[in-house]
Write a structure and sequence with these properties.
By secondary structure, the protein is α/β, with parallel strands linked by helices. The chain has a single domain, classed as Metallo-dependent phosphatases (Purple Acid Phosphatase, chain A, domain 2). The chain is built from nine helices and 13 strands. The protein is globular, with a radius of gyration of 19 Å.
Amino acid sequence: MNIASDPRLTRAAAPVRVRTLFLSDVHLGTRGCHANKLLDFMRHYDSDTIYLVGDIVDGWQLKASWYWPQAHNDVVQKLLRKARKGTRLLYIPGNHDEFLRDYYGTHFGGIEVLADTIHVGVDGKRYLVIHGDLFDVVIRHARWLALLGNHAYDLAIWLNTYFNAVRRFFGLTYWSLSQWAKLKVKNAINFIGEYERTLAAEARRRGVNGVICGHIHHAVIRTTLQIRYMNCGDWVESCTAIVEHFDGVFEIVKWTAQDSALDRVEMAGVLSPAELGSLPLDSIELTSKAAEPC
């Protein structure tokens, strides 16, 4: 639906109140991160609790070459501001921000750092909240291969940026070239299925009703082996988050701002000022995928 036509989501309206937000794989510190879209999302949603489900900051990339524009700093400040105003923030580090794993049990600016945790839903059902990289065989046993794959993924994201700049120029909507390629590879599809089954098995082992994770950049809510499996997605390709409403419904929200002022900022250096000035500003959209029933 169009944000401008929805009185609940206009910039002049108060944020939409929800019980819980789950965000993962933001990858601050990389050029592929859609920090401006995440900022816009956080302006439109307010919650009692926010779970940061890993890979919020990309330490791997920052160690290789420093990249930290103002929008990335603004995301950090926005989160800290929410914490100061009473929102509970829980940070569960992933493999890209593993440097924070030395600080389990501590607080930074009101943000709790935990290895994993249990979220209790409105109906009393319990969900393991964990990034998920510890259940990725490549990450655990072949770190060098994971780093190589990370560089290949960065290249795909870079190509994706220029690919979509051309699509915008011809008035076409955003389409993830890298995500399409990833999902078309049979081994990748098999990996996603195995990852979901492994996380579901871990949830069953811990005696909980479901698992909420990230890591593989594939947002989904479904029941796997009688366990509710929820993946937050990412803010590099899909720009998705999981929202828990006060009635207990979980939902995947996909935040898009195609050809908007936000994209103009993120496209700086991709198109010329004349080309940027010719883009329309009236097609900001919000789409969501409803959660499956339990």
